[in-house]
């Protein structure tokens, strides 16, 4: 019994710490983007790629690594992922002023992040029974939001007193500690699909479809952009047909057929993240470029959303153990939609109190969406497919983030073209941001309607 308790505690610590690290990296990167753009002389679309390359890589490799972890072992992939993530985080902190190299290293950093994301949650699901998962998943989600919360503030402090590079170097230091902790303390292995074949061809088709789709987003409204988007969609259809015909697919579409709850939860995650991820990116640029705040000041303002998420996620997770998690998630999406609607009224002279209140509303809504939605999804999956189920849910999150950045890229390309995000172009930036926030709000409201109809 003591051994079991110790394993649960160690698995929760390792998973929670790994849940903290990538979100911390994402949110701290958002706050240092203006500094990076200045050092590397980047335009709006290039700056977007600093964020998007990381997300795209994570999305491409998340499902394959989730499936691979079910076959070879979740602890093994998790540990390798921490090492890869830490290595490329360190290299980013040391990279010379070359935008292409920076974006490439961010892509490789996302590769390591995919290994962490695809296994961290499945490890605690593997050791905790269903009636305890809501609580521990709530803690896990709270750590995600804690990373999002302290990222802008710590990123602002480090950038203001040192340089943006110190953000990546300090993250690498944490990664080294976590990799060592996992290697030494986390014992045991979980591979419920051991002996089954890994689908290399399906993984390749899947990756090509996502990369093609995202490359198309960056070239809209050119004909090339629409062509690439169409090609990406066609490739994904080919991937789906292929996966349904083989014995051991990398993405088992039967998981959607067998569980309506899982299908609803993953679809909701896709919509929610599509409507919300770009908010941090845009608000960071708004506060520093339009309002003229320092990185530290902007990071302090942006604390509002993730702090509220961190406080209320465990509450929502615990509530999901005794109440209908889908109903709680629906309410959370509704509150999130309200926060997005409030952002559409933001102007250049909007007071910071309004921004803080709006971000708090978003944080409250997202807390009551994310952990109950995750609980509903994972409780509806078979044990054999925990890795795949978690990876698909994570992929929907990443695809949503990718689509969110894709929407931003399209609008920036049409409105700002090659203009840089600097105070002199604040009018163009505000015009772009307003359009993006309107699209986000409509998406989220549509998600509420979808969930209502599905019930």
Structural write-up:
It is a single chain. The chain is an all-alpha fold and 455 residues long. It has one domain (2-199, 246-454): Growth Hormone, Chain: A, CATH 1.20.1250. 84% of the residues lie in helices and 0% in strands. The chain has helices at residues 2-40, 44-72, 74-94, 99-127, 130-161, 165-185, 200-219, 223-245, 254-258, 260-290, 295-301, 304-322, 325-343, 352-379, 386-415, 426-454. Helix 10 (260-290) packs parallel to helix 15. The longest helix is centred in the N-terminal third of the chain and has 39 residues, at 2-40.
Secondary structure: helix percent: over 70%
Shape summary: globular
Q: Which architecture would the CATH scheme give at its second level?
A: Up-down Bundle
Low-pLDDT stretches are none
User: What percentage of the residues does DSSP assign to strands (E)?
Assistant: under 5%
Main CATH class: Mainly Alpha
Largest sheet: none
Number of strands: 0
CATH superfamily: MFS general substrate transporter like domains
Our count of domains comes out at: 1
| Rounded average pLDDT | 80
Q: What structural class do helix, strand and pairing data support?
A: mainly alpha
Please, how many helices?
Answer: 16
* Secondary-structure element series: HHHHHHHHHHHHHHHH
**Separation of termini?**
41 Å
The third-level CATH topology is Growth Hormone, Chain: A
Radius of gyration (CA) equals 21 Å
């Amino acid at each position: 019994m003591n051994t079991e308790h110790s394993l649960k505690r160690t698995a929760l610590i390792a998973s929670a710490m790994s849940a903290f690290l990538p979100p911390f990296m994402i949110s701290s990167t958002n706050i240092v983007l203006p500094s990076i753009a200045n050092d590397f002389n980047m335009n709006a679309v290039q700056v977007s790629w600093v964020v998007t390359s990381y997300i795209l890589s994570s999305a491409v490799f998340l499902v394959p690594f989730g499936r691979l972890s079910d076959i070879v072992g979740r602890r093994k992939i998790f540990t390798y992922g921490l090492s890869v993530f830490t290595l490329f985080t360190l290299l980013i902190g040391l990279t010379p002023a070359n935008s292409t190299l920076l974006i490439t290293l961010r892509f490789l950093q996302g590769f390591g992040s995919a290994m962490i994301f695809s296994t961290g949650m499945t490890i605690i699901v593997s050791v905790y029974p269903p009636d305890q998962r809501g609580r521990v998943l709530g803690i896990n989600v709270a750590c995600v939001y804690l990373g999002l919360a302290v990222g802008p503030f710590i990123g602002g402090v480090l950038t203001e007193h040192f340089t943006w590079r110190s953000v990546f170097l300090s993250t690498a230091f944490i990664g080294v500690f976590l990799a060592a902790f996992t290697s030494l303390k986390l014992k045991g292995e979980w591979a419920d699909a051991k002996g089954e074949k890994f689908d290399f061809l399906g993984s390749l088709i899947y990756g090509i479809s996502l990369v093609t789709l995202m490359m198309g987003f960056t070239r809209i409204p050119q004909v090339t952009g629409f062509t690439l988007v169409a090609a990406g969609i066609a490739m994904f259809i080919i991937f789906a047909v292929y996966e349904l015909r083989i014995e051991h697919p990398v993405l088992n579409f039967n998981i959607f057929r067998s569980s309506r709850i899982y299908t609803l939860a993953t679809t909701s995650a896709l919509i929610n993240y599509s409507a919300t991820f770009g908010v941090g990116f845009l608000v960071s640029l708004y506060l520093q470029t339009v309002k003229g705040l320092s990185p530290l000041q902007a990071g302090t303002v942006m604390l509002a959303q993730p702090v509220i998420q961190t406080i209320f996620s465990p509450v929502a997770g615990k509530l999901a153990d005794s109440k209908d998690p889908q109903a709680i998630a629906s309410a959370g999406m509704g509150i999130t939609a309200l926060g997005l609607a409030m952002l559409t009224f933001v102007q250049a002279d909007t007071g910071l109190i309004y921004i803080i209140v709006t971000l708090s509303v978003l944080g409250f809504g997202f807390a009551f969406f994310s952990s109950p939605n995750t609980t509903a999804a994972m409780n509806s999956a078979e044990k054999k497919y925990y890795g795949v189920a978690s990876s698909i849910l994570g992929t929907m999150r990443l695809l949503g983030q990718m689509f969110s950045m894709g929407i931003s890229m399209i609008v920036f390309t049409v409105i700002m073209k090659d203009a840089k995000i600097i105070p002199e172009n604040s009018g163009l930036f505000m015009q772009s941001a307003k359009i993006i926030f309107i699209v986000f709000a409509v998406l989220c409201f549509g998600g509420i309607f979808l969930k209502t109809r599905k019930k």
